[in-house]
Specification:
There is one protein chain. The protein is α/β, with parallel strands linked by helices and 346 residues long. The chain contains 10 helices and 10 strands. The strands form 2 sheets. It has a 5-stranded mixed sheet, with helices on both faces. Strands 8-7-6-9-10 form a 5-stranded mixed sheet, sandwiched between helices. It is globular, with a radius of gyration of 20 Å. The mean pLDDT is 95.
Length: 346
């Protein structure tokens, strides 16, 4: 089955074509980073308007790159949530209009399920069951995944997510937007041992996370420098960036390792934007062999939001028999808040 997928939950417009037999055929992506940089973060109204401008040209490009036409598409998938309401409505309405015009089924997909299954697009791909560390935007969760639609929450953040800790700390350090990649780049020039920062809930005994205290600790360091009559110099900013990244990675890795021990599983899937972090990948590559476990990541280009993960997740749900392919129902809604547990088949 040829599936055309749309992703527009936040500040990336993604369109992709997936064949349930041959895999990913093509994907096209536009990021709004340059547009939002002037504001230091995503402006929802601007994001929605830009999705409107980009979605049709990206659709034409994805189909052309796949060597297909609209007549070849057999189903349409779109992100129905969670995300920014206006942004979600753009992708959902375009997808449903396409499906209505071509008399095709339209499949709503949970954004985080897309991330969760995206490592299956890599080679080698993990086999079920596995533990998933989902670190995307405002979400940090550990899940046990026994199959498509069979998800069990093991632990989650109680406040700020890892991505938010990266972004907020970067802003405190004057590193601009998007904060995560900027802080990681600055950290490469720094000494993580210079500043001692907390590892929140590292020894809590459970699989939950908390990163708000880390952000506060970074703020305290910045304020201390200002109180002394100045600000952090370039090397101090690099060192504090390195210390911040090390603290986040230590907690993520330790909790993931604990989840593997607790479940007895030997495969860890890391998905979401933070999954592209080099230090996190290196830390897991070093520590997991001691547990006789292996880590799996999506291709770097598919770590951020993209249409490929949405089209692929739809295809996997079709193959698992979790989707009713109706062509006569095109009323739709979007869900800015949507618990991943709601899509579980168990």
């Amino acid at each position: 089955m040829i599936i055309l997928g749309f992703e527009s939950s936040c500040d990336e417009t993604g369109v992709a074509v997936v064949d349930t037999q041959r895999g990913l055929l093509a994907h096209a992506l536009h990021t709004q980073i340059a547009m939002h940089q002037a504001y230091g973060g995503v402006v929802p109204e601007l994001a929605s308007r830009d999705h409107v401008r980009r979605v049709l040209p990206l659709t034409r490009k994805a189909l052309a790159d796949a060597g297909l036409t609209v007549a070849d598409v057999e189903a349409v998938a779109y992100t129905a949530g969670p995300g920014l309401a206006g942004a979600l409505l753009v992708g959902a309405s375009v997808a449903q209009a396409f499906a209505w015009a071509r008399d095709l089924p339209a499949i709503p997909i949970h954004h985080l399920e897309g991330h969760l299954l995206s490592p299956l697009l890599a080679d080698p791909r993990p086999e079920f069951p596995f533990v998933a560390l989902l670190v995307s935007g405002g979400h940090t969760q550990l899940m046990r995944v026994d199959g498509v639609g069979r998800y069990e929450l093991l632990g989650e953040t109680l406040d700020d997510a890892a991505g938010e800790a990266f972004d907020k700390s970067a802003k405190l350090l004057g590193l601009g937007y998007p904060g995560g990649p900027a802080l990681a780049a600055m950290a490469e020039k720094g000494d993580a041992s210079r500043f001692e920062l907390p590892r929140p809930m590292l020894h809590s005994g459970d699989l939950d996370f908390s990163f708000s205290g880390l952000k506060t600790a970074v703020l305290t360091r910045v304020k201390a420098a200002e109180k002394d009559g100045g600000s952090l110099d370039e090397q101090a900013r690099a060192d504090l960036s390195a210390a911040t990244q090390a603290a986040i990675v230590d907690v993520l890795a330790a909790k993931a390792e604990k989840a593997l021990k607790q479940t007895g599983l030997k495969r860890l899937v890391v998905a979401g934007g933070v999954g592209a972090n080099k230090r996190l990948r290196a830390r897991l590559a070093q520590s997991l062999p001691r547990l006789k476990a292996q880590a799996y990541f999506p291709p770097l280009e598919l770590c951020t939001d993209n249409g490929a993960m949405i089209a692929f997740a739809a295809g996997e749900r079709v193959k698992a028999g979790l989707v009713t392919l109706r062509r006569d129902e095109h009323a739709f809604t979007v869900r800015p808040r949507w618990d991943l547990a709601d899509v579980s088949a168990t």
